[in-house]
């Protein structure tokens, strides 16, 4: 086999087939709703109550709520993942305890993620942190390993650290989206700017990298949250990865139902909330 053939083969495997199948496994009609449950590490049990602290509850919710994917760290996946919903395994993470410039390093190998059944890996990059170079470098290696395992690589890109004044400023969010494309993420998870027009630019900057909105702390009301989701969809995002706004609700399955109608069936907020 000549060098050119090797290059063409590996290019078409990694970029055309592997990548495409990888992220498409989390979408229906190019839309997706992912259930995030890595907050136990990121924030600590402060986010939880007597019901939602339990990964078994979240696994059941992911299944019954018809989510396109569930996001766990390795420990939860090893003990609670049942294979019924596609898995995204976070391979880096940190606690909220250290102060200073944020950094999250790799804590699970891509090989182990594949062994526990993940179809994608997730990795957080704190863009603008004094340590961003370490995370960019690590993500670069992890993305290549993930594609070699036929898995998608999803980047959580959160602008954070002393150099960032406003993490949802339109130019910063667009920079986060563009970074996802530049570093080879199949999908990027970013915060909403708060309005459709500026978020459209972020989605455009992400190019062929799919854009998911990051859920955020519990909104003041269901309708307010759903309006944000409608906004990101109107701007061209494929959906959202959400945790607290679903499992902190007194009726998580109801919110899941609304999200399915809004995102997967492309309905209006009012229509999605009808009984
Ligand atoms: P939420 O919907 O609960 O915000 O979850 C999305 C997420 O990206 C989680 O995957 C992650 O644990 C958390 O947000 C990080 O939150 P923070 O912005 O506080 O670092």
How does this structure look, described?
This protein has 275 residues and is of the alpha/beta class. The protein has one domain: TIM Barrel (Alpha-Beta Barrel), CATH 3.20.20.70. Helices cover 45% and strands 16% of the residues. It has twelve helices and ten strands. The protein has helices at residues 3-24, 39-42, 55-64, 74-80, 110-115, 132-148, 170-182, 196-206, 222-234, 244-247, 252-264, 269-272, and strands at 32-36, 69-72, 87-90, 92-93, 105-106, 118-125, 152-157, 187-190, 210-214, 239-242. The strands form two sheets. Strands 1-2-3-6-7-8-9-10 form an eight-stranded parallel beta barrel, surrounded by seven helices. Strand 9 (210-214), helix 9 and strand 10 (239-242) form a beta-alpha-beta unit. Helix 9 (222-234) packs parallel to helix 11 (252-264). The longest helix has 22 residues, at 3-24. The N and C termini lie far apart (61 Å). Mean pLDDT is 93; it is low at 1-20. The site of 1,6-di-O-phosphono-beta-D-fructofuranose has 14 residues, from helix 2, strand 10 and helix 10.
